[in-house]
Amino acid sequence: MTVRLNKILMKRWKHFFSRGMILVMAVFMSSCARLPIESIGCPPREMVVPTLTRVPILRKDVYHVAAPGETVWRIAKMYDVDIKDIKRANRLRNTKEIEMGQRLIVPSAASLKPVVTLYPSKKWKYIIIHHSATDVGNALAFHGYHHRRGFENGLGYHFVVSNGTKGKEDGQIEVSPRWTKQQNGAHCKAANMNNKAIGVCLVGNFSDGRVSQDQMESLVYLVDRLRRYYKVPLKNIMGHGRVHGAQTECPGKKFPWTKFITGLKNARRYYGDRLIKEEHGDARKY
Ligand SMILES: [Zn+2]
Hints:
Blueprint: H1 3-31, H2 37-40, H3 48-53, E1 60-65, H4 72-79, H5 83-89, E2 103-109, E3 126-131, H6 139-148, E4 159-163, E5 170-175, H7 177-180, E6 197-202, H8 213-229, E7 237-239, H9 257-271, H10 274-277
Parallel strand pairs: 3-6, 3-7, 4-6
Antiparallel strand pairs: 1-2, 4-5
Helix pairs in contact: 8-9
Zinc ion (ZN) is lined by residues 130, 240, 248, 250.
């Protein structure tokens, strides 16, 4: 389970807990507080927590708009549900039927978790960070925009990290078809980076705005996995504007590089090696 997922769970748990505690405290105050605890056998406060977490509050039906290249398999993994349940709820005859932009119901969905698949490859030597230079956006919107700009395969990045706009959660990692098909990027012509660099785009404009905490945590999580798996040295992780020959200030003057790099250096402590072992690529599943 990722730090981000833990955070989401904590947020929801805290919300529930804050309401639940009022009830718990009311019971506690009425039955226990006036007598020594030992004499009436009230459970210690810690015992309250597992009781609350057993309540199935985290799952709910959600709508999901399919991003470019997203499959039912991927959506099922993202929400920790069975493929069959998505098929049944949406009356899909097969899992190849969905199209980008299609609105699907995901029954009894858990909190969203990132599904970042890793494919064996010697191609990826750099990781380039971009911003969208827009206040809002998601993979689907950028896909259309890049198509209109004449990019043959649409969305030019390999990953998009959301800022919580256009129906996506803050910090949600969207995986581009260019990644699942292991295609060249269309995000940085300079220094031939499109052939050898993984392109990651954060939604937002960091010439003015700030990277949210959730976005930064997801970026660190994503880049940490990628750099360890593909053995990309820290010096090869850079902003678009730092690529030799690039004429841009992308990802923006206010992008917090020190925070990002410090996060990467500390990531192993947070995530350990287990993430590298998860969900290794199997292109047939996508
Ligand atoms: Zn850029």
